[in-house]
Amino acid sequence: MIVLKSADEIQLMREAGRVVAQAHALVRELIRPGLTTLDLDRAVDEFLLKQNAIPAFKGYQGYPASICASVNEVVVHGIPSKDVILQEGSIISVDIGAFVDGFCGDSAWTYPVGEVDPEVQSLLQTTEEALFEGIAQAKVGNRLSDISHAVQQRAEERGFSVVRDFVGHGIGRKMHEAPQIPNFGPPGRGPRLKTGMTLAIEPMVNMGSYHVQILNDNWTVVTRDNKWSAHFEHTIAITDEGPVILTIL
Ligand code: MF3
Ligand code: CO
């Protein structure tokens, strides 16, 4: 069942979204060669608590940290570690979720560490564009898979592939609500989109094939071919005026 939110509830979700966006602004400033992914986790954790926000990931199905920090061939769910030191030319996806006043915001961004190769820059730009193509389809009267199809089209027209094994999701009082939102598929399928739906749209795009595997820590998702992957995510609300991004400042 897809839980529709009232205008007041969407207003509350904006607050959660804003705190997540602020945490991303902090991360963007901090990222540099030599920093560890654990440093980033500590900074975000401290920031969220100071804002009276509850980190959404910590303790979720036993997840041990407040952010996911996924470097290069890691697609999603990289666990922050003092042993993962950021290197010039790498990319890092930072995924942050937080509850404020009972509602959740969830957003991921992939950042370059210093200068990256042009084809890596293209991966980042394409994945970000794919997210915004998906968001543009999140309007009343469309169907859910119109989002999926738009994401896939942008990624594949640039020669990249979209991950099949992980999806976006509804979001609200829980981090994961119905519906699941695949990042591929034909348009015109699935539930009709309605005012009051709140969704986390999160394309994961690979430079090589779309196949992924989970490492022995039971969290870290990597590409099978070890080529690099990017991940961008916003929490949005569908309104009569169109899609509204909630995870912005
Ligand atoms: N953005 C991810 C998601 O929507 C983050 C979840 S990580 C977890 O599923 F550790 F909380 F599972
Ligand atoms: Co999410």
Describe this structure in words.
It is globular and about 45 Å long. It has helices at about 5-30, 35-50, 120-135, 145-155, and strands at about 55, 65-70, 75, 90-100, 105-110, 160, 170, 175-180, 200, 205, 210-215, 220-225, 230, 235-240, 240-245. Helix content is about 30%, strand content about 25%. The protein is an alpha+beta fold. The protein has one domain (about 5-245): Creatine Amidinohydrolase (Alpha-Beta Complex), CATH 3.90.230. The model has no long low-confidence stretch (mean pLDDT about 100). Bound molecules: 2-amino-4-trifluoromethylsulfanyl-butyric acid (MF3) and cobalt (II) ion (CO). 2-amino-4-trifluoromethylsulfanyl-butyric acid binds near residues 61, 77, 106 and 200.
Keywords summarizing the entry:
249 residues; alpha+beta; Creatine Amidinohydrolase; five-stranded antiparallel β-sheet; binds 2-amino-4-trifluoromethylsulfanyl-butyric acid
Please give the structural blueprint.
Blueprint: H1 7-30, H2 37-50, E1 54-55, E2 67-71, E3 74-76, E4 91-100, E5 103-112, H3 118-136, H4 144-157, E6 161-162, E7 168-170, E8 177-181, E9 198-201, E10 204-206, E11 212-214, E12 221-223, E13 229-231, E14 234-239, E15 242-245
Antiparallel strand pairs: 1-4, 2-4, 3-12, 4-5, 6-10, 7-8, 7-9, 9-14, 10-13, 11-12, 14-15
Helix pairs in contact: 1-2, 3-4
Computed structural class: alpha+beta
CATH class category name: Alpha Beta
Instruction: Report the CATH architecture.
Output: Alpha-Beta Complex
Helix content: 25-40%
| Whole-number tally of structural domains | 1
Mean pLDDT: 98
Number of H- or I-type helical stretches: 4
* Small-molecule components bound: 2-amino-4-trifluoromethylsulfanyl-butyric acid, cobalt (II) ion
CATH superfamily grouping: Creatinase/methionine aminopeptidase superfamily
Runs with pLDDT <50, length 5+?
Answer: none
Radius of gyration: 17 Å
Describe the strand arrangement of the main beta sheet, using strand numbers: 8-7-9-14-15
